[in-house]
Design a protein that fits this description.
It is built from ten helices and two strands, in the order H-H-H-H-H-H-E-E-H-H-H-H. The protein is mostly helical. A hairpin with a 2-residue loop joins strand 1 and strand 2. 34% of the residues are buried.
């Protein structure tokens, strides 16, 4: 387990603090919308899993989700954002952010961690809304083809298959679909919305 040191020792930045960091970094508005959606989807999923006995760190999930793409307009944005977090003592957030583009494989259902949750959320969000794995992957394949890389399709489909196995296991465990779970979530303030229920 990685322990935070420095400014955030013992806790994680909240939504307001994360939004301040995004503003200071100059993250574009449309990317902030995506970050909010990933944070909301991850938080909602983790909250549902915690209700069934998991002990996922919701504050870490919220912060890592909000900050994961803060440097998206840069080359190797995952590394740039991870280094930004490390400089501020947010080592757990940095560890998640650093692998979110290449995370493989997911842990099995019994060993899910915060990295699994953020990476799964990122793979089901399209722009600034939950879209599910099918719509998200269709978009990625179409984008690869537009960029002249149709050869990426088999790899993308393999990753989709692996992700779908995890989603199916989570849905069976929770007794509801991800689509149903994500209906009506508040992308702007998910932590308050879910804490009230």
């Amino acid at each position: 387990m990685i322990i935070n040191t420095g400014a955030w020792a013992g806790h994680h930045p909240d939504r307001v603090q994360c939004m301040q960091m995004l503003a200071e970094y100059g993250t574009p508005v449309h990317v902030i919308g995506h970050c909010k959606a990933v944070a909301a989807v991850g938080y909602t999923l983790a909250k549902a899993l915690n209700a069934k006995g998991y002990q996922l760190d919701l504050d870490l999930i919220l912060a890592a989700g909000l900050l994961h793409d803060m440097a998206r307009v840069e080359d190797m944005h995952w590394e740039a954002a991870a280094k930004y977090c490390e400089r501020r003592g947010m080592n757990q957030e940095a560890a998640i952010i650093r692998v979110h583009m290449t995370y493989d494989p997911f842990n099995d259902l019994e060993h899910l961690n915060e990295t699994d949750i953020i990476c799964l959320a990122d793979r089901t969000v399209l722009e600034d809304r939950y879209a599910g794995i099918d719509r998200r992957i269709d978009y990625i394949i179409a984008k690869a083809e537009r960029q002249g890389h149709p050869e990426h399709k088999p790899h993308i489909l393999r990753k989709k298959g692996e992700t779908k196995i995890l989603i199916d296991a989570i849905e069976a465990f929770l007794g509801c679909s991800m689509d149903a779970l994500m209906q009506g979530i508040d992308y702007e303030n998910v932590e308050r919305e879910t804490d009230e229920h």
